[in-house]
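Students often ask why inverse folding is considered easier than folding. One informal answer: many sequences map to the same fold, so there is more than one right answer. In these notes we will look at a single instance of the problem. The structure comes first.
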């Protein structure tokens, strides 16, 4: 049984014309696509604003009760990270947790295993593809002294700033300099 002509007429009248479809895309779809694309670029390549920091391990640089920090993803997987930089990384012992520590050794560097007690002065060489991290507050920090060198593949990014009240922020600069050559 053939369908009545009015059925096809109703369907074709309900569809937008090609010009209307283009206007619809420009008006509704394109702005959402731009926001999604911009969000992707910012989150994956420029920086992340994760939840507040917790714990006393980075005192006095970061507050124990929670500072909001900006993390640059340009330094993901340890690219361009240097000794003295603060990095955010996936915690090697706690699944789905992140940590922020200061890098004190890169691949090939020699570091002291226990720097705070003075009893054990074991020197270690940081293996290739790893870095040695410490908290600024050595007595309250679980860091590479506890779980060893961390793989550079766990590095999420470099901490570049922290938020301050009133929409201000404080940039972190690496002031570590190479020692002068022996005379």
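Output (designed amino acids):
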């Amino acid at each position: 049984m053939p369908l009545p002509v009015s059925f096809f007429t109703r369907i074709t009248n309900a569809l937008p014309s090609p010009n209307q479809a283009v206007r619809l895309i420009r008006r509704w779809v394109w702005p959402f696509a731009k926001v999604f694309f911009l969000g992707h670029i910012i989150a994956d390549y420029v920086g992340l604003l994760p939840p507040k920091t917790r714990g006393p391990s980075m005192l006095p640089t970061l507050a124990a009760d929670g500072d909001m920090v900006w993390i640059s993803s340009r330094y993901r997987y340890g690219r361009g990270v240097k000794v003295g930089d603060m990095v955010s990384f996936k915690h090697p012992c706690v699944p789905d947790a992140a940590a922020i520590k200061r890098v004190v050794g890169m691949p090939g560097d020699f570091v002291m295993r226990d720097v705070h007690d003075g009893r054990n002065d074991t020197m270690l060489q940081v293996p290739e593809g790893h870095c040695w991290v410490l908290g600024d507050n050595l007595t309250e920090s679980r860091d590479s002294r506890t779980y060893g060198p961390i793989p550079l593949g766990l590095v999420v990014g470099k901490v570049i700033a922290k938020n301050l009240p009133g929409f201000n922020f404080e940039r972190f600069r690496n002031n570590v300099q190479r020692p002068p050559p022996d005379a």
